Amino acid sequence: MDTDDTTVPLSALQHWMYCPRQCALIHVEGQWLENRYTAEGKILHERVDAGGSEARGDLRVLRAVPLLSRRLGISGVADVVEATRAVVDGDGTCALPGLPGAWRLEPVEYKRGKPKPEPSDTVQLCAQALCLEEQFGARIEVASLFYFKTRRRLSVPLDAELRRTTEDACRAVADLVATGRTPPPVNDKRCLACSLAVVCQPRLAARPSARQWHADQIHQSFADSEPDP
Questions:
Q1: Is residue 126 part of a domain?
Q2: Can you name the residues that pair with 62 across neighbouring β-strands?
């Protein structure tokens, strides 16, 4: 696969959607720490990628598929791409190297936990589909997420809204990397599961400086001393 240093990894999109500061710490500052969640996820992905390709009738299960979108400036690897032989050529089908006939593609991303309220997983999955569309000239209408905690496969329609959100995220991450600026901490419930909490220090960094604290106290004392209208 033809890649270069101008692309950002697909994983950066998930990090951005979860927390822009986390994304900057990893992809701008080069910080990374493992915790139980990241270690379990790494092991599960290694197992999936090591499975090799499979053929089941008109289905081909392709693992560890390299991905690249020059248009969006992203690259990475898909856990699994399922290719199903199409009865009729056209309508979003594509050709695959070394395989006769026309094929429909569906990326399948494996996650250790359970479905999340934020769209971090679906955006990363949609980005994989956009890469496949660009690489193979396909049109992919649906992709899937498999969560190990629930042992369920979730079908994700790749509608216009999700595609727009994904492309916006690609541009935002590219701008973040280009500027090299790390956003301030948020110090909310997301920090509890973040492996970089020790590096980020959200509680400490979110506190005002001593000068700002004194200024706030003076301002508040004046406000309290003003007579009621």
A1: yes
A2: 81
Q: Read off the pLDDT of residues 35-90 as tens digits, 9 standing for 90 and up.
A: 555 555 555 656 556 556 788 899 999 999 999 999 999 999 999 999 999 988 77
Is 150 among the domain residues? yes
Token representation of residue 146:
């498999």
Collapse the DSSP code of 113 into the 3-class scheme (helix H, G, I; strand E, B; otherwise coil) and give the result. coil
Surface-to-core class of residue 176, CB atoms within 10 Å of its CB (0-12 exposed, 13-18 middle, 19+ buried): buried
- Give the end-to-end CA distance of the chain in Å, rounded to a whole number: 71
DSSP 48-69: HHTT--EEETTEEEEEEEEEEE
Query: Which among 149, 159, 170, 185 is positioned nearest to 40, based on CA atoms?
Result: 149
Give me the domain span that covers residue 44.
8-181
Tens-place pLDDT, residues 117-160: 889 999 999 999 999 999 999 999 999 999 988 989 999 999 99
CATH of the domain at 109: 3.90.320.10
For the stretch 180-185, contacts whose Cβ atoms lie closer than 8 Å and that sit 24 or more positions apart, written own/partner, are 180/28, 181/24, 181/28, 182/21, 182/24, 182/25, 182/28, 182/29, 183/20, 183/21, 183/24, 184/21, 185/21
Number of domains in the chain: 1
Q: How many helices (H) and strands (E) does the chain have?
A: 8, 8
Whether 204 is in a domain gets the answer no
